[in-house]
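Troubleshooting entry. Yesterday's outputs looked truncated, so today I'm pasting the complete records for two proteins to confirm everything comes through intact. If either block looks cut off, that's the bug. Protein one:
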Amino acid sequence: MTDIGLPAAETGRSLWADAWNRLKANKAAMLSIWYLALMTVLCIVGPWFTPHDFTTIYQDYTRVPPSLEAYPKPDAIDLAVKDAVKRSRLDLAGWEERDGKVFITVTSAKPIDDRVTRYIDRSDVFEGAQVTEKSADGLKLTMSADVQKKYFFFGTDNTGRDLLTRTLIAGRVSLAIGLLAGLVAVVIGVLYGAIAGFTGGRTDEIMMRIVDILYSLPFIFFVIMLVVFFGRNFVLMFLAVGAVLWLDMARIVRGQALSLKRQEYVQAAEALGVSPGGILLRHVVPNLLGPVVIYMTLLVPQVIILESFLSFLGLGVQEPMSSWGVLISQGAKNIPSATWLLIFPSFFLTTTLFALNFIGDGLRDALDPKDR
C-alpha cells in the first residue's frame, strides 16, 4: 500500500510576528530606530569620552565658536598673557611662544616675588608656570608655562562650559523624561480607558466623570502642585506629569474599546466562555496598540516641551543639569552673537522628534490588524 504524502501543516503566525516583518520592510522606521538607538547610546556613553566635564567652567573660553582645531588661538594667547600680567600688577615686557610653551617677561619698580606664577596658573590657557630667569636686582623676571590645548567641537556657552558635553547630558535628561512620562501616561491611560470602554454601563459613566473632573482642573496648576509635592527630583516630578497626561490617552482608548467590543471576534470569544479579563488582554488591548503608539510618539515631544516650560518657571531641571529644551531656550537668547548655542541642541531635538514620528508611523502600519 503506497503512502500518500500530505503537505505539512503551515505554522500560524502571531500578530507580533506579522508586525515585526512589516516593520522591517519599512526603511524609514528601521532607520529611525537605529538612529534613536545611536542617539541614546551617545547620550549615555558620550559624556564619559568627551574632554570636558559638563560642570567645568572655563572663564577664558566664554562663548567661543565651534572648531575642529585646538584652542587657544594666537590672539587668545596674547589676551590671556595680558590679563594674567594685569592681575599680577606687573608690567609686561614681552612674551613669545615656542614648542608649546609660552615665555613671559615682566618688570616692576619693586622686587618681584616668585609666587607671581600663581597668576599665570589661574588662567585656563596656561599650566605649570615656573620662573626660568630672574635679574640680580629682582626687578625683571621671565616665566614659562605650558599652553593647554583644548578642543570645543560644539563651542562653549555663556559661562564657558563645553556645549558638546552639555548637549549629551541634556539628551539623557530629555529622553529619560519623555520616555518615562510617556510610559506612565500610556500604562495608566490604556488600562483605565480599556476597562471603561469594554465594561460600559454605570462603570463607564463613573470612570469618565472622574476624567472630566480632572480635566476641569487647571493643568499647569495641577502640575505645579505635584512638583511641589514630589520635590525637585526630576524622575519623581515627571512620574507625576505622566500621571496627569494619561487623561487624553484614556479618552482615546475608551472610544476605541467601545468600537472593538462590538466586533465579531470579541462576541465569539464571549460565546466560547473567555473571561472578560482574557478578552480585554488578548483581543481588545492588542488591537488598540496602533493608536496608542502614535499618541505616545506625540506625547514624548509634548513632555519635553512641558519640561522646558517648567524649567523656565524654575520648577523643572535645575543647574548644573540641563535638557535640550533648556539649551534651546538659552540659545534663542543668543542668536545674534552665538548661533551655535541654538543650532546644536535644536538639531539633536529635531532629529530625535523626526525619528519618533517615523517610528510611530511604522508601528501604526505594522500593528494594524486589518493589514494581516
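Protein two, checking that the full record survives here as well:
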Amino acid sequence: MNNVLIKNANIVNEGKILNGDVYIENGFFKEIAPQISAKSPNVQVFDAEGKYLLPGVIDDQVHFREPGLTHKATIETESRAAIAGGITSFIEMPNTNPQTTTIEKLEEKFEIASKTSYANYSFMFGGTNDNLEEILKVDSKNVAGLKLFLGSSTGNMLVDNPEVLEKIFSSTDLVISVHCEDEETIRNNTAIYKEKYGDDIPIELHPIIRSEEACYISSSNAVALAKKTGARLHVFHLSTAKELELFSNKIPLKDKKITAEVCIHHLWFSDEDYKEKGTLIKWNPAVKTSKDRDALFEALLNDKLDVIATDHAPHTKEEKDNVYTKAPSGGPLVQHALPAMLEFYHKDKISLEKIVEKMCHNPAILFQVEKRGYIKEGYCADAVLVDLNAPWTVNTDNIAYKCGWSPFEGTTFKSRITHTFVNGSLVYKNFKFYDVKNGQRLTFDR
C-alpha cells in the first residue's frame, strides 16, 4: 500500500477549517500538521492547494438491491457511484430478495460486499412480525442496527403487530431505525383517488396520498413506544414540518435516545417539482411542500435533525416511467448528495463545517462507528478532496448508477469531488475510477 501525503489542504473537521498537510500511512491518518515533508520516496504526494479536504461521508441509508434485484443495481455498481460522490461508507437496507431477516442471509450480504465493494460497508438487519429470535442473535459490534418498516414495506417486512413491536423495542440494544408512514391512512387515501383516476393518478397527488397525517401518526407512535421502553430509536427520512415537534435539540447527539435524519431529496425538491420531474421524484415518504422543505432545513441547522442521508433506491427508467400506481418509489442519489449540499453552501444556506458534521461526524456518533467520520490521527483514512470552483453538469455521460439516470440530470453543480480516498487508497479522481475495491466491513464501538 502506497503512503499518501496531501499538501496545502483546507481541512474541514470538528467545526473548524485549518490549512495544512495530512500524511496517511498504511491506511490510517498518521499525522496532521501545518507542514509535513514526505517520509520516503514511495510516498504519493497530492497538492490540494485551494481545495477542501473533508472526511469521507457516511451514508446511513441506502438500497443497493443485491441480492435479487440486480437489474436495478448491485453493491459493486452503487458503491462505485458512491465514491464518485464522496461517500466512503454506507449502511444498506434489508429489503432485498431474499430479505435480510436471518443471520445466514445477513452474512451472505457481507460476503458479497467483501469481494465487490469500493466503499466501506455495513448492513441493517430486518425485523418482521415473527423473527425476534433471529434479532436477538445479532452482534451489535459487527452490525449497524435493526431496520423496521412501520409502513411502505416490501415482502413480509411490515411490522404491524403492536405486541411484537413493543417486544422488539424492549428486547434489543441495537439502534432501531424506522420507516414511518401509517399504512391504513395511505390505503384509504389511495382508494379515494384510484376510484377517481384509476391507475393513472396524477403524480402531484402523491404527497396528498402519502400525507403529513400518515407520517405523523406513525412517527409519533414510534417515538412514544421508544420513550415507554427506553429503546434507542432513529427515525429515517423525515419529510414534514409537523413531525419535527417530536424531536429535541436540548442535549448532545451522543446522549440522545431518539434521533432523526433528513434526506437530500426532501431538502432539494418540493411538490412544485412534480410537474417537471414526474415519477422520477416519487419517493416514500413523499416530497412535500416548500414549507415542509424549509422547516426541515431549519431543523437541520438547529440540530433537531441529526444526520443527512440519501435513501439511495434506484429503479430502472422503464420502471419509473409507468403510471402512478405501477411506478415504484425511490431514486438514485449517492453520487450527487454531497455536490447538492455544497450547492446549498454556495447559496449561504449552510456552512462547510455543518455539512461535515451532519454527513460525516454525526453518522459516526449516532451508530458508534469505530475510527471513521473524522480526519484524526489513528483513524481510518477515508477522505474527500473537493474543488468548490469547478462547475460540471450532470448528464448521462457522467452518471455512474447502473440504472443510468438521475433526478439531478441537467443540474449544474459549482463544486466537484476531485479525489476520494478509502482506507488510504485513491479510488476515484475527476470522473476516473481506479479498480481498487478497498472497502472494509464497518465495526462499531458498543
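Both blocks look complete. Sanity check on protein two: The two ends are 30 Å apart (CA to CA).
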